[in-house]
């Protein structure tokens, strides 16, 4: 459905890419939803072959990587992603495969970043085609409203991606990522006082302290 909106000076640049047939359906739907919207320029990849390196490294505002991935027979491999696809410059990244928010994939995306920070939208569980139909337009509309600013987008998108009233896709989140050479995003300081330095034996609260 076409949208009557004014044409901006710099439309949002979106690249949709996939490793095979799975991503073609949401790509087509998203393309058709925004094809008449002058605020968005979508470049879909209709190749059913391996994930194109040029697509992943494209100079765009939003990079959408869709495809199959699970703990058994994966097509988007985290180690291959980290090794062969370095140079991601998109500030907003959607990883549409299963387990995209798992540690292996977030570490792979971080190692690929060629920008100081990016927001990653991904699922911690299994994904379905209907997730893309619901979430991708929601993410694009938010980026259109706020701009492709990872630090500003991360908390807003994380809140928006949570199911409302138990309905909607689950396990999706948005997190701010930095390259391995950059400092990790800062976290709020704990509100409780620091333990005494004079031989106190009081135990720390569960979950506090550094992980090893």
Relevant terms:
single chain; 212 residues; alpha/beta; Rossmann fold; 6-stranded mixed sheet; 6 helices; 6 strands; 16% strand; disordered N terminus
What string gives the helices and strands in order? EHEHEHEHEHHE
Write the CATH fold name: Rossmann fold
Structural class: alpha/beta
What percentage of the residues does DSSP assign to strands (E)?
Answer: 15-25%
CATH architecture level-2 label: 3-Layer(aba) Sandwich
Radius of gyration: 19 Å
Show unreliable segments. Answer: 1-7, 187-212
Figure out the total of helices. 6
Report how far the terminal alpha carbons are from each other. 51 Å
Biased composition (Pro residues): 180-193
Region (Disordered): 169-212
Briefly summarize what is shown.
This protein is α/β, with parallel strands linked by helices and 212 residues long.
Protein model, in words:
With 212 residues, the chain is α/β, with parallel strands linked by helices. The protein contains 6 helices and 6 strands; from the N terminus they run βαβαβαβαβααβ. Strands 2-1-3-4-5-6 form a 6-stranded mixed beta sheet, with helices on both faces. The longest helix has 18 residues, at 129-146. The model is unreliable at 1-7 and 187-212 (pLDDT under 50). It has helices spanning 24-34, 53-56, 78-84, 103-112, 129-146, 150-160; strands at 12-18, 40-44, 62-66, 92-95, 118-123, 172-177. The chain has one domain (12-177): Rossmann fold (3-Layer(aba) Sandwich). Residues 180-193 have a biased composition (Pro residues).
């Amino acid at each position: 459905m076409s949208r009557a909106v004014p044409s901006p000076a710099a439309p949002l640049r979106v690249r949709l890419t996939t490793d095979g047939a799975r991503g073609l359906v949401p790509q087509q739907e998203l393309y058709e939803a925004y094809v008449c919207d002058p605020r968005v320029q979508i470049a879909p990849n209709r190749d059913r072959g391996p994930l194109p390196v040029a697509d992943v490294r494209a100079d765009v505002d939003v990079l959408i990587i869709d495809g199959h991935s699970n703990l058994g027979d994966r097509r988007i491999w985290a180690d291959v992603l980290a090794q062969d696809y370095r140079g991601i410059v998109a500030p907003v990244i959607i990883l549409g495969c299963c387990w995209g928010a798992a540690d292996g994939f977030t570490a792979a995306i971080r190692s690929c970043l060629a920008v100081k920070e990016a927001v990653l939208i991904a699922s911690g569980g299994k994904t379905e085609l209907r997730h893309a139909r619901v979430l991708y337009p929601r993410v694009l509309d938010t980026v259109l409203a706020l701009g492709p600013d990872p630090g500003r987008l991360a908390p807003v998108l994380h809140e928006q991606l949570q199911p409302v009233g138990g309905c909607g896709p689950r396990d999706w989140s948005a997190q701010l990522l930095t390259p391995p050479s950059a400092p990790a995003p800062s976290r709020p300081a704990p509100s409780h006082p620091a333990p005494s330095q004079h031989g106190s034996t009081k135990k720390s609260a569960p979950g506090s302290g550094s992980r090893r």
